[in-house]
Amino acid sequence: MKTMLLTLFILSNFLYQPSPHSETNQSATATEISSPKLEYPDNQRKSFVEVDAFYKKLDKDIYEEYKNATFSMRKKVSFKEVPDVELTFKIKTKLDNKKMNPIDSTIHPNRQVYFLASFHQNEKEEFHKYVVIDAETKTVLLKGNHYHLYENPYK
């Protein structure tokens, strides 16, 4: 009886041991998940031109503030701050009060970017636009615009 139990114990340990190959695959997968390859890594320690100098040199086909803009905004921020800055722009121009959620796993949260936004309003219409440009590569990461008719509450 003891021999049979001992044999079962040894066989169960032998049969239920994870193979070294499967452990290696699991740890490699965990490493890949925890540190994905970033297309835009952290560059917070690098120095870039101030936002006004950047805007002056920017190709106007990429972005140009509205002529006679009612309000414009230029900021150099980290990518994680973009939703807050964009929300400030929306609130100041009375567009709405919803914060964007720029989920992009290829951009490090501390990546430096330029946030440029412009607003124009006349008696009939309102125009909003913004662009987020990577400070290092000068690549457009996000952009958006909005148009709607304006009803003057004081008429």
Would you kindly provide a brief summary of this structure?
The chain has 155 residues and is of the alpha+beta class. The chain has helices at 2-15, 20-34, 51-57, 82-92, and strands at 71-78, 112-121, 125-134, 140-149.
Number of E-type strands: 4
Placed side by side, the strands forming the largest sheet appear as: 1-2-3-4
Helix content: 25-40%
Largest sheet: 4 strands, antiparallel
Following the backbone from N to C, one meets helices and strands in this order, namely HHHEHEEE
Arithmetic mean pLDDT: 82
Measure the end-to-end span: 99 Å
Estimated structural class: alpha+beta
Description:
The chain has 155 residues and is α+β, with helices and mostly antiparallel strands. It has two domains: 2-34, no CATH class; 51-149, no CATH class. The chain is 30% helix and 25% strand. It has four helices and four strands; from the N terminus they run αααβαβββ. A hairpin with a 3-residue loop joins strand 2 and strand 3 (125-134). It starts with a helix and ends in a 6-residue tail after the last strand.
